[in-house]
Amino acid sequence: MYDPDSMTFAQRITLCCLADMAEADRTPADAAEIKAEAKEILENADGQPVGSLSDADVIRALAGLADTDLVDERRPEDRSPVGKGRPQYAVEADLGRLREGLEADEELGGLPN
Length: 113
Description:
Elements: H1 9-23, H2 31-43, H3 55-66, E1 71-74, E2 88-91, H4 95-104
Antiparallel strand pairs: 1-2
Helix pairs in contact: 1-2, 1-3, 1-4, 2-3
């Protein structure tokens, strides 16, 4: 269940990105794809406390979200050092209920949907 009080702002933005990407059938996605989505969303947002998320912000947010029942982390078996084998993430929760929670989150109110 979505509980904004137990999440950082970066986690909530990251979760919003994953929900948008899931609705567009673009998941699972890796951290770089999610960061690019966050950049686009935050650039088009009104009155957000941050203008962008760093790579580290997104990776930390995903690590925390993967420990919840909201996000599923998938680790490929091929873990070569050239970027293949990066973990990918997808929404594990009911997307409709998650979207309702995100839309009710007052701090995310300025984000485009």
